[in-house]
Amino acid sequence: MDIGNVQNVRRVRNLTNVHFIRQRKIYKIRKNPYIELTNNEFRKKYRFSKAECLQIVNEIRDFLPRAVNNRGKPISPSLQFLIALRYLARGQVQDDNGDLHGVSQPTVSRCLSQICRALASLKNNYIKFPLTNEELASKKADFRRKFNMPSIIGAIDCTHIPDIRIKKVAGDYAQLYINRKGFYSINVQVSHITSPLSCSMGN
Fold first, then answer.
1. Exposed e or buried b for every residue in 155-174, given b needs 16+ CB within 10 A?
2. Confidence tier at 80 by pLDDT (50, 70, 90)
3. Is residue 29 predicted with pLDDT exceeding 80?
4. For helices 105-120 and 50-60, angle between their N-to-C axes, nearest 10 degrees
């Protein structure tokens, strides 16, 4: 073995003895939009008022896990809700959503999943269909009295509402909102069982 090879072997041995210093984890600064934003700013970002958001949070609080932990840092139910709401309202990329609220992308994903499950747990409180003979008879009577339509207990229809802002707001997901006629729209389904009027939207 020549001297050059010996030196190369020594260099390799020296490299194996080097202790690499792990980069210290830097945690994002957690935000509190309820305090930091004005009422107008809050509504613009989340589409609801602060009071409306807190009312919904109070309804789903019991359905949420105690906390979404980020290395031992619990996230309040009210912030979990805003993280999920921002994503649902804007279709924002999860990394950007995390930056806005001071959490990681995996935390955004967990919040979204848990909040959606919690909201779905309330479905029986708000989504109701007449089941008993008395309820069915009452709905039929309501439709006949209000609209002169006999033997009807409910109505449902769908339509596409054009929205040119989708391309800008939805970003990479904008193509999901192009309907069969080739323009950007939101698919709206309206169901009416006399009262209240129910509306759901999607792409």
1. eeeeeeeeeeebeeebeeee
2. very high
3. no
4. 70
